[in-house]
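Notebook p. 47: complex prediction with NAP.
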Amino acid sequence: MIRRLLILGGTTEAAALARAAVARFGDALAVTTSLAGRIPPSQNLAGEVRVGGFGGADGIIKYLGDSGTNLVIDATHPFAAEISRQAEDACVRTGTSRLMLIRPPWQPAPGDDWIEVNGLDGAAAALPGISHRVFLTTGPGGIDAFSSVSDVWFLVRTFEPPTAALPLNDHAVVVARPPFTVEDEMALLTEHRIDTIVSKQSGGPTDAKLAAARSEGARVVMVRRPEPPVGESVETVEAALDWIAARV
Ligand code: NAP
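Predicted complex, structure tokens below:
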């Protein structure tokens, strides 16, 4: 029987998994990647692609039934907590096999000055008194959390130009998409005299802005990840392929 795999995507790992699964399992596995559709996909995806929200866990259940999907790999970003909870709910209710592909968190290296905080509110609360020029790399969602922080100038990086004024007292915007080199990031920190970077604990491959912070002596306010849902998880595409192989 042909197995049908749904990859919940929007990450580099999800795209790599789709590519590797199509190459390894061929006709024995139908692969579909689901994207939220907030931004245009930055890479060609192997297999089928569907775009847009499902309409909560009930929508995922309907999709699984209509498409005959029997395997789900949640390879979404560690901060995409809502879709991961909905996938857990849908898979538990339907008895569908589910795996989470969760990239390993970054670890501080010698010379790093990290403050770990809970949520964007925690990051905003950590800044007054210790930071004056802050590079905010957490994306456009949640900037409200920093709206009442005073005596801090923010540099905000977004993938797309903001469509409305940002709710910050004193700030500038830089529009850019990854990948960024360490040299790019060091130049940005120097140009804007940044003393602190606010970052989500996204994890994965070594990160250029964290390396730049280390060499420039900038502090990092690191927002801890939300707890992932209960369930089996792996950290690498290879391990996810082995999980599929055991079921194909
Ligand atoms: P979220 O808060 O967990 O999900 C919000 C809603 O967006 C979900 O309820 C669902 O809508 C829809 N959705 C999210 N991911 C989806 C997917 N892969 N396929 C279909 N629908 C999806 O998610 P988010 O934090 O806004 O992230 C959206 C997407 O961007 C995710 O796919 C994630 O992997 C990617 N991403 C997120 C971050 C981040 O920092 N959060 C960073 C990089 C990439 P319905 O309720 O209508 O089904």
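Notes: The radius of gyration is 20 Å. The chain has a mean pLDDT of 95.
Next step: compare against the earlier run before touching the bench.
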